Every structure is written in C-alpha cells, then in structure tokens.
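Supplementary Note 3. Input sequence used for the single-chain structure prediction.
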Amino acid sequence: MTDNSISLSADEQITLRRVAFGESPAHTLRTGDLVRLRHLRLIADGKDGPYLTAAGRTCFESLPKPTMSELPQGGFAEEVERIRRMKTGGA
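The predicted structure, written as discrete structure tokens, is reproduced below.
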C-alpha cells in the first residue's frame, strides 16, 4: 500500500481480492466492506460493478500471497491428486 496507515481487516482483504479478480457479482460482496473500500478510494463503481482504483491496485498487489506452505503436508502433488479423486469420485 502506498499509505501505511491503511489497514484492512481479513474480510476487507478478501473483498478487495474478489473485486480485483472481477468474478464476483456485486450483490455477493459484503456491503460493509464495499462501503469502507469506497471510502478509502480503493474501489469505485462502474457499469459492470465495482473495480479497483489505482490506489486499490497498489493495495491489492501488496496483500500477502498464498504460499506453498499452506498446502497439506504431502505437498502440491498430493493436493492435486486429492482434488482429482474428489472430482472423479475415485478412491
């Protein structure tokens, strides 16, 4: 973030990410988060829903990124196999 005084809650960070990816309809986003993100001028309203402002993009890019350490102990390959089994109904 360009302004170190901006502190977002975990929920606000999730909402900011969802706006950044543009895959969530506005009605599915937390209203309180949207109000605060607008107030901070991190998002603005467009014809297709909220979008990131330049400050919002900077803030989004500074958010922590998921790491491989968040995967189960077996690592990436095991996680891919677990998902494959779930989708195919295999054991």
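Residues 30 and 51 are 15 Å apart (CA to CA). The first strand starts at residue 43 and ends at 46.
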